[in-house]
Specification:
Strands 1-4 form a two-stranded parallel sheet. A two-stranded antiparallel ribbon has the order 2-3. The mean pLDDT is 88. The protein has nine helices and four strands, in the order H-H-H-H-H-H-H-H-H-E-E-E-E. With 224 residues, it is mainly α. The longest helix is centred in the first third of the chain and has 21 residues, at 50-70. It is globular and about 60 Å long.
């Protein structure tokens, strides 16, 4: 087996482990890959609750006015930089913590409502929309999904206001869309108080301005 075949076999094995490990449940997207369209899994299309819709409409109106007055997409492209005044304004409106719980300074909106906000930004400036998405939808997502109460109390309030910014560090030389091929190592320190990262990341959105990064890395496998 030559080197190319060996690499291909490794990728197939990793994909099988990722896709077929554990109990199998056929979701809508996975069903599409297998040639099945089951409308009952996505219909009726989800609706935003009436009470939240009112709050969302008010937020979109405030956001629209702010963007019209302060967002210059052409200048952002020319300078390759989003002004701090724009980031601060988005933070004041609540855009940077849209789905975070209110008790941590977020708006407590649904993901669908957050998509409406991203649409409003994206139709004016794709760069700013990507910045918001990298900060919120993946940058602080690990905290929202897995963070302890103490961690959320420490980090989320400043991340929701934009005082601090988040990023998501996945891409490497040999990993990006192929997330299972991440090579960066995360090993516990001798006293077990933290992890030591060893590896290299690249093309990380917001990395140059972020205060907190969610880093994808491999931890030691017991017995190996």
């Amino acid at each position: 087996m030559n080197k190319l075949d060996a690499q291909r076999q490794k990728e197939i094995q990793q994909a099988e482990e990722l896709l077929f490990a554990g109990p199998q449940a056929l979701g809508f997207a996975k069903g599409l890959f297998q040639g099945h369209f089951v409308s009952d899994w996505v219909m009726p299309y989800p609706r935003i609750p009436a009470a939240q819709q009112v709050e969302l409409d008010e937020t979109l109106s405030e956001l629209s006015q702010f963007l019209d007055e302060h967002l210059d997409a052409a200048e952002i492209d020319r300078q390759a930089d989003i002004p701090r005044s724009v980031i601060d304004g988005l933070g004041r409106i609540g855009v940077l913590g849209m789905t975070a719980p209110k008790k941590y300074g977020g708006r407590g909106f649904s993901q669908m409502a957050n998509c409406k906000v991203l649409e409003e930004i994206g139709r004016r400036c794709a760069s700013t929309s990507v910045f918001v998405n990298a900060h919120h939808s993946i940058g602080i997502r690990a905290l929202l999904l897995f963070g302890t109460h103490e961690q959320n109390q420490k980090w989320l309030p400043k991340l929701c206001t934009g005082e601090q910014l988040g990023s998501f560090a996945l891409t490497e030389r040999e990993a990006g869309s192929d997330a299972a091929n991440v090579q960066m190592q995360a090993r516990p320190s001798e006293d077990g108080s933290h992890f030591i990262l060893n590896g290299e990341k690249r093309y990380i959105t917001n990395a140059a301005i972020a205060h907190e990064l969610t880093v994808m890395a491999r931890t030691p496998v017991p017995g190996k």
